[in-house]
Every structure is written in structure tokens, then in C-alpha cells.
Write a structure and sequence with these properties.
single chain; mainly alpha; 3 helices; cytoplasm; ubiquinone biosynthesis
Length: about 80
């Protein structure tokens, strides 16, 4: 990840911290971090797990199709 990005993020947090009353800091830092994470295109653990499962199923289907193709090639006398 880009060191400059984190430096800018740190500076923005310091700026917010110094310019707001204590009760507004948490809300604003949370919003700032949420925007930073969106910029980094991070996904939630749930989204990651869903995509990992889709990939697992796709790999299993690909393996099955490769086996079927190899069987067909053997039947037709065409080695792979």
C-alpha cells in the first residue's frame, strides 16, 4: 500500500482532532476512515467469504469439465 496515502490519512486525522470538540472527533474520524477504506477498495469479510466460495465451486466445476474433456478425447483417440 502507498505510504503517502497513510501519511495523508494521518495528517487528516490530526487536523480533525485539533479542530473539533471531543464529542465530534469519534464521528468524524469514523467517517474519514470509512472513506479511506472505500478508497482502498476493501471488502467486508462476508463479501470475501462469498467470493472465496464462488471461486471454490468454479474450480471444482473446471476440474470436472477438464476430466470430461480428457475422457472424450480418449474415446475419440485424440490424446491431450
Amino acid at each position: 500500500m502507498n505510504a503517502q496515502f497513510f501519511e495523508e490519512l494521518s495528517n487528516k486525522i490530526k487536523e480533525i482532532y485539533s479542530s473539533l470538540p471531543a464529542e465530534g472527533i469519534e464521528h468524524n474520524v469514523h467517517a474519514l476512515l470509512q472513506g479511506a477504506f472505500t478508497k482502498l477498495e476493501l471488502v467486508t469479510r462476508e463479501e470475501f467469504d462469498i467470493q472465496a466460495e464462488v471461486l471454490r465451486k468454479t474450480r471444482a466445476q473446471l476440474a470436472d469439465l477438464e476430466k470430461q474433456l480428457a475422457d472424450i478425447e480418449i474415446k475419440l483417440g485424440q490424446p491431450s
